[in-house]
UniProtKB/TrEMBL annotation:
Recorded family membership: Belongs to the 4-toluene sulfonate uptake permease (TSUP) (TC 2.A.102) family.
Keywords: Cell membrane, Membrane, Transmembrane, Transmembrane helix
Localisation per UniProt entry: Cell membrane; Membrane
A Pfam entry, by short name: TauE
Lineage: Bacteria, Pseudomonadati, Pseudomonadota, Alphaproteobacteria, Rhodobacterales
Topology in membrane: Multi-pass membrane protein
Keyword RNA-binding among record annotations: no
One Gene Ontology cellular component annotation held by this UniProt entry: plasma membrane
Spans through the membrane: 12-39, 85-104, 116-138, 172-205, 211-229, 236-257, 269-290
Name under which the protein is recorded: Probable membrane transporter protein
Taxonomy, superkingdom: Bacteria
Keyword Cell membrane (UniProt): yes
Length: 303
């Protein structure tokens, strides 16, 4: 069954969109990521204009992340103080990112920016996560003791605050900076930023894995909602019909993903996420390098 999307100006299969939304919802619940790093490229592949895909995808991120967050709230695995500090930086980063997005869209360069951003960030983050997670699995199989937390330059910065749920006493500056970066990625790439936020909280801030996913989802919900509002008011590229279909699948999938994630070890979750990130990165890089079937195309002007 086909449905016409008025803002994207294309017709797509309803079942396909519901399936994509459900898949991304499962990932959100399992890994504590918004899932936009996968959904946005998939929307590219089925013919949705990048500007519309980025802006509309934020809606699906809100629903999928909120659904997963509710499950973690019941288990009390959310550090609200850390989440609030991350959110302060995230809101600022999102506002800056939307302005950059709008400016480059007017110049006709936003499609290239989005695709290159995906290749660079997914490649770096995926490779780092894969290597670290593989080492962690090898250590556990050999019976070696897990590495202890070490004091790094993060612990020497001023403005320290005690985060009781995470068992940390660190400066608020690194979380704010991480939040700012995640906010920019949400606005420019149409992602929740979990693929950056989760490893940053684990490896840079030293947060325990059990509270990382819930705290990540808490931050993603509010940053993605703010990003959606900003895009709707400035770039006018939010397609409501597309958003609703993605929302329905996302909410269902997130609950399923949360249950799957609870049955897997932390190292297994991280290496699975790393493999998925690298797979998407490789597909996008291949599309940029290969010669297109049609050298010229006429794309609709959105807005």
């Amino acid at each position: 069954m086909q449905i016409y999307l008025p803002i994207a100006e294309v017709s797509v299969n309803v079942i396909l969109l519901l399936g994509l939304g459900t898949l991304v919802g499962v990932l959100s619940g399992m890994f504590g990521v918004g899932g936009g790093f996968l959904m946005t490229p998939l929307l590219f592949f089925i013919g949705i204009p990048p500007a519309v895909a980025v802006a509309t995808q934020a809606n699906q991120i809100v629903a999928a992340s909120l659904s997963g967050l509710l499950a973690h709230l019941r288990r009390r695995t959310v550090d609200f103080r850390m989440g609030t500090v991350l959110l302060i930086g995230g809101i600022g980063g999102s506002a800056v990112g939307v302005e950059i997005f709008a400016t480059l869209r007017e110049m006709g360069q936003v499609d290239l920016l989005v695709r290159l951003s995906y290749v660079v960030f997914l490649g770096i983050i995926g490779a780092l996560m894969f290597v670290e997670s593989l080492n962690a699995i090898l250590r556990s199989r050999s019976g070696a003791a897990p590495a202890r937390r070490r004091h790094t330059w993060v612990h020497a910065l001023p403005g320290k605050v005690k985060f009781r749920t995470s068992g940390l006493y660190i400066s608020v500056l690194p979380p704010i900076a991480i939040g700012f970066l995640v906010g920019m990625l949400a606005a420019i790439m149409g992602v929740g930023g979990g693929f950056v936020l989760v490893p940053a909280m684990i490896y840079l801030l030293g947060m325990p894995t059990k509270v990382v996913i819930g705290t990540s989802l808490f931050n993603i919900v509010f940053v993605a909602a703010f990003t959606t509002m900003m895009h709707a008011m400035t770039t006018y590229t939010v397609d409501v019909a597309l958003a609703v279909l993605l929302l329905v699948g996302g909410v269902i999938g997130a609950q399923v993903g949360t249950q799957i994630g609870l049955k897997m070890k932390a190292e297994q979750l991280r290496i699975a996420l790393a493999g998925l990130v690298l797979l998407v990165c490789g597909k996008l890089a291949l599309d940029l390098l290969l010669r297109p079937d049609e050298l010229y195309s006429i794309a609709p002007v959105i807005g």
